[in-house]
Amino acid sequence: MTNNSMYSRFGIGEKVLAFAEPILQELSPRFAETDRIAEYNQLKVIRAMQEAHVGEANLMGTTGYGYDDIGRDGLEETFARAFCTEDALVRPQITCGTHALALALMANLRPGDGLLYASGAPYDTMEEVIGIRESAGSLAEYGISYSQAELDGEGRLSPENIRAALRDNTRIAVIQRSRGYSGRPTFTVEEIGACIRFIREIRPDITVMIDNCYGEFTEEREPSEVGADMIVGSLIKNPGGGLAPTGGYIAGTRICVENAARRLTSPGLGREVGATLGVLPSLYQGFFLAPTAVASAMKGAMFAAGAYGALGFEVSPGVTDLRSDIIQSVTFGNPEGVIAFCQGIQAASPVDSYVVPQPDDMPGYDSQVIMAAGAFVSGSTMELSADGPVRPPYTVFMQGGLTWPHAKLGVLKSLQLMLDRGIIHL
Ligand SMILES: *Cc1c(COP(=O)(O)O)cnc(C)c1O
Fold first, then answer.
1. Is the beta carbon of 214 within 6 A of some atom in ligand 1?
2. Which among 44, 128, 230, 402 would be 20 to 30 A from 420, CA to CA?
C-alpha cells in the first residue's frame, strides 16, 4: 500500500498530491535546517535532564501540601538548565499563558511602579491584566501605571519609541516575542537581544521580561540567553510537547522567580508547596518531546505558507522568512476560504474528525469566529489547530502539529476541500 493510496482514503486526490510535490521538494533545505535546530534543542533538553539528575523517583507526584517534591524540584531545575536561567517555576497550578504572565508581573511590580510594553499592543488577554480594558484586580487597580512603545512602520521594535515610552517609574519592560494573532512579524531572538541591550544601556535598573508563548525551541537560543531577566510561557503550547495537560512556567533570575513563587502560593511558603499529583511524567516527557514537536509544527506552517503562497494568497510569515514562533497566517479574502481551511484541518484530526466546525459568535469578538481543533488536550495549540474571525481580510491562523505527517495531512485536506468547492483551481 503506497502513501498516495492511503491519502486517497482521506479523499485527497492525485491533483492535490501532484501540486504539493514540488512545493515539498523546494522546502527540503528548510526542513533540514528545522531538523538541525530540533536536534540541537533535543540535546539541550536531554543534557538539562541529566545535569538535574532526573531519575525514576522524580516521576512520582506528591499530594496535600506537596512538601519535598523532588520531581517538581527536578523539573524546575531542568527548565532552568535548558533555558540557561538561574531558576524556574514550572507548575500545574499555573493555569495558562495569561496566568503565567500575570503572575510574573504581579509578583515583580509594586504599587507606584510602571510597566512598559516595548513591543506595541500586547496579546489580547493581557489587556485586562494590565487594565488597558478596565477589569477588577488589574495591575492598574493596584496603582501600576502602563506605557506602550509602538512598533516602527515595518512592525519592528523601535528604539526611539521605547526611549520615549520609558518613565522614571518603569520597573519592567516586556517584549512579546510572537506575533500572536496580529499582523506584525515575530521577533527573532537576535532582534530581542539587540532591544534588550538598548534598554540596558539607558536603564540598567529595569527588569526585562519576554512573553515567550509560541516561541520556545523554534530557534537554538531562547531570549534568556541574550539578556532577558524572565521568560514566560504556557505548557499547552511549545514546551509541553503536546503531553503536558496543563501548566505554565516562569524562568529567569533567582529573585524574579522567587517573587513569582511567593505570589503563586504565599509569602513564607513560596515554592516549597504545590502538590504535583500525577502530572509529572507528562510534564517531563512533554518537555523531552517538545523540540521535535515544535519542528513538526514549523514544517506544517512552512508547507501551508508554500502551498497557499503558490496559489497567490498572502501568507505570513512568507515561505523563506526566518521563523521564531509556530504561527502561520493565510489571508483568503473571502469567508469560504477561511471556512474550508478550518474544516480541512478538523477533518485531519485524530480526535473529533467527524465534527464540522462552523462560524459562530464568540464572547469578546465583534464578528463570528471559526475554530478547528481535534486535540487530545483541550485548547492545546501545540496540537494542529486553526482559527480565524470571519471578517475582512479573512485571515486564518494555523499553528501546531505534534507530528509532521499529521500537519501535512491537515494542509493537504484543506487544499482538497478548497479544490472540491471551487475556491482554488489546480
Ligand atoms: C497564547 C498566548 C498568550 C496567552 O496564553 P493563554 O495560554 O492562551 O492564556 C499570551 N501571549 C502570547 C504571545 C500568546 O501566544
1. yes
2. 402
Give 360's DSSP letter.
Answer: B
The whole-number average pLDDT for the span 50-78 is: 97
Angle in degrees, CA 97, 396, 157, rounded to 5: 60
Query: What's the chain's length in residues?
Result: 426
Which of 91, 94, 95, 125 best tests ligand 1's pocket when mutated (most atoms within 8 Å of CB)?
125
Specify the pLDDT at position 114.
Answer: 98
Tell me which amino acid residue 379 is. G
The whole-model pTM stands at 0.97
Looking at residue 2, its pLDDT comes to 86
Q: Could you tell me where the beta strands, DSSP code E, fall in 124-167?
A: 145-148
Q: How far is the CA of 293 from the centre of ligand 1 (A)?
A: 18
Ligand 1 atom nearest to 234, measured from its CA: 7
Q: Collect all residues with Cβ–Cβ distance below 8 Å to 338 and sequence separation of at least 6.
A: 332, 359, 370, 388, 390, 394, 395, 396
**CA nearest to 287, candidates 350, 240, 334:** 240
Cβ(319)–Cβ(302) below 8 Å:
yes
**Grid coordinates given for 195:** 532591544
Average pLDDT over residues 88-101: 98
Geometric angle at alpha carbon 194, from 190 and 198, rounded to 5°: 165
Residue burial 322-335, b: 16+ Cβ < 10 Å; e: rest: ebbbbbbbbbbeeb
**Measured from the CB, is residue 330 less than 6 Å from ligand 1?**
no
Q: Is the CB of 97 under 6 A from ligand 1?
A: yes
